[in-house]
Design brief:
By secondary structure, this protein is mainly alpha-helical. The protein has 6 helices and no strands.
Length: 136
């Protein structure tokens, strides 16, 4: 697409791996889950998939293990900043409240798993829908 005032053309969409194409195809067809319970059609389509494909749709292990770095790699720098700020705030809060080690670890793990479960949706929203938000 050419920009009228500059004559520049937009870069073509990046070529995505088969895994991303599968995720994007699913999200194109059934939408993305919001914060609450997903709609009936989305839930039924997800249940119809094999376990491996369900995991492929609902979890991004690179994001769970490498969080901020992987979000930056995907170009989700706003989300990366928010994730880092929330992680630091959680860490400071747990130290200030003298939270037991086991509970602190559980809170941290829950946070990283949640980010891993939302990253596919964030990336889809950025690439397919053009949304660039700060919100998680």
């Amino acid at each position: 697409m050419a920009h009228e005032h500059t004559g520049l053309t937009a870069a073509p969409a990046p070529v995505r791996s088969g895994k991303w194409q599968f995720r994007f195809g699913f999200f194109d067809t059934y939408g993305t889950p919001g914060w609450g319970k997903p709609d009936v059609e989305y839930a039924a389509a997800l249940r119809a998939l094999s376990f491996r494909d369900r995991i492929k749709i609902t979890m991004n292990f690179c994001a769970a293990f490498f969080t901020v770095f992987y979000l930056l790699y995907l170009g989700l720098w706003r989300k990366a900043i928010v994730v880092l700020v929330v992680a630091v705030a959680l860490g400071v809060t747990t130290v200030a409240l003298n939270v037991p080690y086991g509970l602190d670890t559980a809170i941290s793990m829950a946070w990283w798993i949640w980010i891993g479960m939302r990253t596919n949706i964030y990336y889809y929203e950025r690439v397919a829908e053009g949304r660039k938000t700060w919100g998680l």
